[in-house]
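FIELD: query
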Amino acid sequence: MTGANITPVTTYEALILESHGPTAVIRLNRPEKHNAISKQMSGDVIACLDAIEADEGVRVIVLTGAGEKAFCAGADMAEAAFLPDGAERRDFAAQAVVRLARVRKPVIAAVNGYAYGGGAAIAINCDIRVCSENARFRFVGASYGLVVGASRLPSIVGAPMAKELIFTARTVDAGEALRIGLANHVVQQGDLERVVLEMAGQVAEHSPAALAASKEVIDIAAGTLEAAKRELEHNLELRQGDEHKVRFRAAAERVVRPEDAQK
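FIELD: result
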């Protein structure tokens, strides 16, 4: 069953949109690239969220990744780092995160594997995170010269822990994520979608207007709105500097060969 105004699944190339009554499930669908965010995926996510927000039949959104290995590996470094000289370079992962942060409806992340970089930013910009036992988080922005997750993470894990995770860029496993509040729940991989859909069903029973208002008030109380603006401003400035370009290119070369970007 699909909401009346949701664009059909066939229009999206890099994600799958499923309907479960009042719950819309967005599945990032580039498993061969560990669901890394390409220009196409970013555009699909933005268009899909626009359609879902306009559909009064959808009350809750679930966001997850295809496969059992990765929720989202962050930006597609092959695409971003190895564009031809003179080509426009834009942070498509950040664009998807910004749109997600503006969604008024409740969003539950079903973190089914590792969430690194922009993938971690997507996860923390969901309202609730339910993780499988193999979930992993890593906030790697500072390693390639950007601010990633700093506006949202302190309200989730506290300022000292947020600084540790962002400054060190170390990996957080599912058990630690649960202990520090980064995960609301950790369940077995095979139970993840069932648990998340049950939770989404509980949320969907309540007043959509009250849920949207509650979400707004909580975000204001957490101080994340102004912080998100400053994060964006910092990144616009940092992207103009040589250090980010050098660091990002070096990071990309560690995980992908330049010739792969042409395939």
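FIELD: remark
The chain is about 45% helix and 15% strand.
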